[in-house]
Known about the structure:
alpha/beta
Amino acid sequence: MVISRGARTLVVLIWTALLGAALAVAPPATADPGTTWLCRPGLPDDPCGGRSGNPVDCFYVYPTISAQLTTNANFDRSPELHGIARLQAEAFGERCDVWAPVYRQVTLRSLFAGSAEERAAGLELAYDDVERAWDDYLANHNNGRGVVLIGHSQGTRMLRTLIQERIEGTPVQAQLVSALLLGGNVTVRAGDVVGGDFDSVPACTDAAQTGCVVAYSAYSRLPADIRYGVAPSPGLEVLCTNPASLHENSATAPLRGTVGSSDTGSFTGRCTGGAANVLLIEGPGAQLLPAVPNESWGLHLLDVNVAQGDLVDLVRTQAESYLR
């Protein structure tokens, strides 16, 4: 089945709406008021569905989406945050209770026009917010439950550091159901499933495995100036775990992707391996998926959605395995 014109249009319209909403507000970053929750069980107008009663929790950190004209966003639960949470995280609410803090992320303006110094300082501020929210969640809301970490892009960067600083080697590591760290170049030792970014959180190689990480960046073609999938130093490689074929990542497997309630089409995915290890999306209509802002980024905006059905099912299986 070729991706429908309606599904292609929906992809473009959703991201246009998200960025348009972001551009409509540009207040300065504000002081830390304590945790502001974008999503939490029972929260009115929760873009993640507000569900409770699932056997495990998900802790979701959203990607770069704010177009506020400052280095860091503020703590407003703004329209673009609602939009991205509905697009990426709401579907997981079928399998886990979703908690998502608002954090003073580095904005799109800083990403594309700020100096390296601005971005470095901004990312430190953003991480401090995520760490404080995590500590609040553990102390006041977790109650010993298993947790799936879900991040994309800047959110993956935040959660990668959180695992390094607050989870690995601590008692809470036993509560890690899994970490879905997408669009963020998680590294491992070359030819291994661990090493690199994490010492003791391995790549997931089976759907029933827990305490492991799923990571990839999606592309429908491989440009010469590819941004993701390239290891930062010798001896390391960027991790690609095919969510539809964890036991054999290089195998071509059908993906179950969604954007809202629409099927993105009958695509397949396989990890390319080699110098640029990414999830290559193939099949009728794959070339029509938008590479934004340019070809080097690949399908970055759709990293979560190209395999969202597979990821939601994986969370279910991992949660069942964790509870056993």
